[in-house]
Amino acid sequence: MNDKKNKTFLLKEWIIQEKEETEVLLRSIPATTVSLFVVSVICMNLLANKTLFQNYYIALDGGILISWLSFMCMDIITKYFGPKASNKIAVLASSINVLTCFIFYIASIIPSNANDYTALDEILGGTWFILLGSTIAFLISAVINNCLNWSIGKAISHKWNSKVTFAIQSYISTFFGQFFDNLIFSLIVFVGFAPIFWDGFHWTVLQCTTCALTGAFAELIMEIVFSPFGYKILMKWKEHEVGREYITYVNGGKQE
User: Fold this and answer.
1) Which of 60, 185, 195, 212 could form a disulfide with 137 if both were Cys (CB 3.0 to 4.6 A apart)?
2) What is the Cα–Cα distance from 164 to 175, expressed in whole angstroms?
3) Which residues contact 127 (CB under 8 A, 6 or more apart)?
């Protein structure tokens, strides 16, 4: 009985601590970065409803057009605040995405006496298994990206200057993160659910794999193009000591 009480007490303490830490984190990360991150996650989910290209060997969905922004935001947050902070923001973005999709769905099914039903209602209504697949895939890939980014940075930071280190850890983590995001999503949606709910429409495992690889390379190119801007943002944060409250909090009251 005492063990059970101790575990309950420790769980409550952990929840209180995590809640407080998250509140400090949300006060510390610039709102623009969080906003862009959340919007990119919502857009990824909407764009995933559209297949841009498909043949026997490859298939691509519209999420590829914006997913690079999500991963760049995560790379910046991970580099500055750490992987745990970035994982928390990823969960926040996914939660807001689910809520947004729910609101869109309600709007799409509300009867209207106006003759304005269009394909937009279908887009807003979305498809439940696309939301499920995109949420699972994004959360798993976010953890992979953030932990890999942080680990690489720790391993090589003493060998190169901060700009080169940021580039290397961002490129590698983005490639693998994007690959698993695309692969998990396409396997869940286009192999698992689509054949059942979309009248037989589906992707093959080969198409899912090539989609994941092609998407990862395409998004890596976008990361290479825009990472200099990400590095400038990172340097601005350091210059102005952005997020001092959170950094001090996680270091037990001691600033780095």
Assistant:
1) 185
2) 17
3) 49, 197
Predicted TM-score of the model (pTM): 0.85
At 171, give phi and psi (nearest 5°). Answer: -65, -45
Cα(79)–Cα(92) distance, integer angstroms? 18
Report the distance separating Cα 163 and Cα 231, nearest Å: 7
The CA distance from 160 to 81, in Å, is 20
Long-range contacts of 225-233 (CB under 8 A, 24+ apart): 226/68, 226/69, 226/72, 227/72, 227/75, 227/166, 227/167, 227/170, 227/171, 230/72, 230/75, 230/76, 230/166, 230/170, 231/163, 231/166, 231/167, 233/33, 233/76
> Measuring CA to CA, which residue among 144, 249, 189, 248 is closest to residue 49?
189
pLDDT tens for each residue of 194-243: 888 777 777 888 888 988 888 888 888 888 888 899 999 999 999 999 98
- DSSP-derived secondary structure for 82-94: -HHHHHHHHHHHH
Burial class (CB in 10 A: 0-12, 13-18, 19+), 117: exposed
Task: For the beta carbon of residue 231, count every other beta carbon within 10 angstroms.
Answer: 19
